[in-house]
Amino acid sequence: MRRLRFAPVATCYVVVVVMLTITGRLSLPYADLAMFVAVVLTMPAGLLSPLLALVPGHFGWYALPLLAVLNAFVVRLLIRVLPRDPVARDVENRLHSALVSTRLKVTPMMHAGSRRERSLLLRDVPIAYPQLVGVYHDLWRDSGLRVRELPEPLALQAYDGEGYAFSLRAGPGVFGDAVLTVAPPAARRWGFAAGLAAGGVPCVVAALSTAYLALLLTGCGALVGGLACLTAPRTRAFGRGLLLGGVPALVVLLLYGSA
């Protein structure tokens, strides 16, 4: 997957925080909410914002934009330090093993696939495609994979004990001889469902009660907790559910702001 460049993304991020901060300083219906969102967007560096009040003549309105600049570098460091998604790493390792297992001299090229699967375009294959299918069929069967051969068009599918899917299909015309793909197991939905329940139930209750303090606690808690969960690969599904569950409380908070 192609990574976004740091400089333009960080610049857009700081500009958004600046606009929200300026909106929060104006006498507008959504001023308080805009300021709160600006503080949330500067996390985790935004945890230092209360300390700025201890400094005589502290930065004032542009404190949050400065924290946003600091936060961009903090998040960049965290992305490099935090562990990679173990599923993506396992997919890449299996694809490499499948590539070298035949000991055939081919020219592998990256091939576009879905978000989590990885594919290689195999060019300069020294044997015909049907023979290549037979080679992989025997290799995967001897390795204990559940192999399935598709006759029309000729392709191969296999699954290992952990649910990872391997496939081999004909290449796209003159651009390659075969496409080798490894996909991760089907995603488990319990993490997303648990996050949705954890965030949605209290937020819906708070939205129905229309108590401002309850809305603030549940909505902001779901927002901050969801963003925190997105930093770790194993909790991202829970974090997405938590963010979605916090929508009712945040919507009612918006209505409060407009009133």
UniProtKB/TrEMBL annotation:
The chain crosses the membrane at residues 6-26, 33-53, 59-79, 190-207, 213-230, 237-256. The keyword Membrane applies. Keywords: Membrane, Transmembrane, Transmembrane helix. This is Uncharacterized protein. It comes from Actinoplanes auranticolor.
